[in-house]
Amino acid sequence: MQNSKIEKEKYIIVDWLSRLGVEFQTGFVVINSQLDEQPILYANQAFYDMTGYSETDVLGKNGSFLHGEKTDKVISEKIRKCTLSDKADTFEIVNYQKNKNPFWNEITIQPISVDGGKHRYTLMLMKNINDRKREEALIQLQQEAYTGIEKGYMLGSLLENVCRIIESFFKDGTTCTILFIDENNKFRDVAGNSMPKGFREFIDGREATPESGSCGAAYHRGESVIVENMLEDKLWEEYRDIAVEYGFKSSWSVPFLDKDGNAIGTLGIYFPSTTKPDEKDYTFMERIAPTISLTVKYSRQQEEMLKLAYTDRTTGLRNRNYFMIELASLLEENKEGLVAFLSVDEYVKVVDQYGHRAGDQLIQEIGKRFGLATSSKEALIARFSDSTLALVSLMPLDQIPEYLEELAKLLAEPITVRDMELFLSLKTGVSIITAMQQDVEELIRYADSALSKAKLRAGESICYYENEHDEYMMRNLRIANELTAALRREEIKVHLQPKVDMRTGKILSFEALARWNSPELGNIAPDVFIPAAEKNGKIRVLEQNVLKQVMEWLKNRQEHNLNLQQVAVNVSADHFFHHSFVPNLVDMTAEYNIDRRLIQLEITERIGFVDIEAARKIFKQLTKYGFTSSVDDFGTGYSSLSYLQKLPVSEIKIDRSFISKMHETDTLAIVRTIIQLAENLDMTAVAEGVETEEQKQLLLDLGCHVGQGYYFYRPMPLEDANLL
């Protein structure tokens, strides 16, 4: 009876499809959505070819036979509900072929009515989208690797994600492992959480020989190795027992390489049944390997650069960069707390008598003691400057005095530095975090201002920031007010400082630097008026003024047939991302008839983190028009290797703070790393702040050939630069 009903309904549907005159180029089924079991009434040949099932397997059955371990139950339920409605929709879900191979199925649901609406059915068009999903997975892995590296994720967790993605495209029970081969030619287990623990422990630490399984062979051959039957292949002769113990029948392995093309590790895929890759499987596996290589490469470089960016190398404490970023993150919690700047009078005495190394030891010991405070175990302590520690902690405001008292008590016992036993006089400046005060820069400035007042008092002292007594705030307000008038009167002048070939002393190019001598306020330092311009929305006007003066100078030299050399101009993030930046720059060079190769844009590292995709588009435009770019103060911000790799930057400038401390072993290592990084990325490394012959010679020995600093030339007015 049931078969008779199915045949009748099948006839109605087939007749309806025939009269509709539609020829489907993809698999489809028709189900009776009026019955609870939603049986399949009809399926075309393309559906049988796609799934491997026969007509006997399918007709009269519910489509759940396509489900398996990787099938998303939530999506499956959405599909079921859609078939009961009168709405069309499209879903993507993992289904299974008859041979148990999973595949991504794109299902388009279309309700249909026939015979005057007496019969309601559902047409389900199906398409195998495995190829597209694999392409998407490769792109996803690359994006997640870059994002994860920038967020500081551990390499192991990033590679676990690679294993998870690979396993999703193969039979249930398929597992992956990623191994490194160390300097002693030993396997080192890195990722593969789905692998049995015993198998991972067995492999870890074993010698990687050409006969040690698929991975050993792939590593030594430098190419993919496919073992269809681990129980018979000679490569697994030594490890056959472990393969049998864990039920592995087939293994595929592909090596991943370093930048020089040498194998550094392997990806292994293990199957519970004898399995041979088809062409698409093989291509997918081969394309995964370079993604692993890039992930490893940039993770290792980022790890080194994060140490440079976030750690004070002389004390091991967090540094200013880390503190600023973490403070911004903590403020997002919208809780009360404090920012404190702390210093001791004795620091200067120690440095004067024993040098900066002893001063570093003093700061290190103070930081360790502060870390023992129990009133706030979540406090972040960082070295903000040579003599100042910065601290932030979230806590109710009424607990702050008790916490500060505990910090003072932690310094009650003397600290011994060399042969000096020091009783310290702690000076503390505090700014309060409230719902009304959540600005990072303001909190930092307030704490610094309060510390300045605390230092004016004898002995141990704590000062809280008070608005009405802040002389620095009043001066900043005056600077902000005068800045607008100064830009209008063109008081801010450009000085040029040459970049020099340190081997010959030849001037290679110049950097344009803004200088302000105010009739009202006197000489204002750039690190004062430039932040004021950024804060008050005047930075674009200021930088356009600098560009104008540079181009006028170049035009004048051009008209007098003088030698023309490239000039670098600093560009802020606000200016760089403004919609008029590139058009205005192009128009200015055209107006002054200046070769665009003579203008270099110096950017700060944070431009790469504002919007990397927008930055990429802008850099493409700049490169198209002939401009070049440089990264200024490299290493002092949140250094990102991903943006260096993505953006067409031709120059890295090593910050002067590193050059001045090259006599210290750790700082020298940092400088060497940056120079090597620049060389590896085919960029020019420029050392800023070179002041001595010793620094110049050391940089040359490290392979850095371009320098800038007082040793060669001080910044000079444009008219003086004309004499060079």
Automatic annotation (TrEMBL):
Read off the CDD domains from this record: EAL (cd01948), GGDEF (cd01949), PAS (cd00130)
Q: Where is the EAL domain?
A: 476-724
Q: Which domain of life is it from?
A: Bacteria
Give the matching SUPFAM superfamilies.
EAL domain-like, GAF domain-like, Nucleotide cyclase, PYP-like sensor domain (PAS domain)
Describe the location of the GGDEF domain by residue ranges.
Answer: 335-467
| Signal sequence extent | none
UniProt source species: Planococcus halotolerans
Q: What is this protein called?
A: Bifunctional diguanylate cyclase/phosphodiesterase
Q: Which InterPro entries match?
A: Biofilm_reg_signaling (IPR052155), EAL_dom (IPR001633), EAL_sf (IPR035919), GAF (IPR003018), GAF-like_dom_sf (IPR029016), GGDEF_dom (IPR000160), Nucleotide_cyclase (IPR029787), PAS (IPR000014)
State the PROSITE patterns in the record: EAL, GGDEF, PAS
